[in-house]
Design brief:
This protein is an all-alpha fold. The protein folds into 2 domains: 148 residues, no CATH class; 59 residues, no CATH class. The chain is built from 8 helices and no strands.
Length: 227
Amino acid sequence: MHEEKHFEGSEVVRDIVIGMSDGLTVPFALAAGLSGAISDNSIIVTAGIAEIVAGSIAMGLGGYLAGKTEIEHYDAELKREYYEVDVFPEKEKQEVSEIFESYGLSPQSTEVVVNEMSKDKDKWVNFMMRFELGLEKPDINRARESALTIGLSYIAGGIVPLVSYFFTDTATDGLFYSCIITTLCLFVFGFLKSKVIGQPPFYGALRITLIGALAATSAYYVAHLIN
C-alpha cells in the first residue's frame, strides 16, 4: 500500500531555524569581536547575555508582528472577496472558470462546477482565497507561538558561543573553545535543518557554518584593528 509522506510543521521549523541560526551567529560574532579588543571574560559574558536578552525579544517581537500582519492581511482579503462575490458575481464566476480551465477541465464541466459552487457563498469565497489569491487561513494563535518559538530558539542558540567564556580565564582561551563548540553546533544544526526539509544536508551544514565563521572572523579582526 502506497503511503504518501509529506513534511508537516514547516512554520515551526522555519521559526526554529530563524531563531537558532541568528542565536548561534550574532552572539558568536559579538563574543569574537569583543575578544579581539579586550581580555576580560566577565565583560564578554555580560555583553553576550545582554545581547541574547535583547536579541530574543527583538526576534520574538518580529515574529509576532509578522504573524499578526498575516492574519490582518487574510482578513482584509476575505472581506474584499465577499464584497466582490456579492457585487460582481458574474466576474467572480468567470475567474473561477478560468482557474478550472487552467487545470484542463472542459468548458462544459467547468460551467457545471461553477454553478454548483456559487450556490454556497462561503465555499465559493474560500475557493477564491486559496486558488486565486493563494492564501490559506492562518492560525489565530500563530503569532504568539511564532514569537515564543523564535525567542526561545534564539536564547538556546545564543548560549552556545558564551559557554566557554564561563570556564576559561582569558578571552583568547574563551574564543578558542567557543570557535570549536559553535562551529560544531552550526554544522550539526545546518545538517539537521537541511535533512528535515529535504535539502542536501552537507551543503546546508557547510553553508550555515561558513556564514557563522565569516561573521565571527570579520567581527574579530575589525575589533582588533580598531583597538
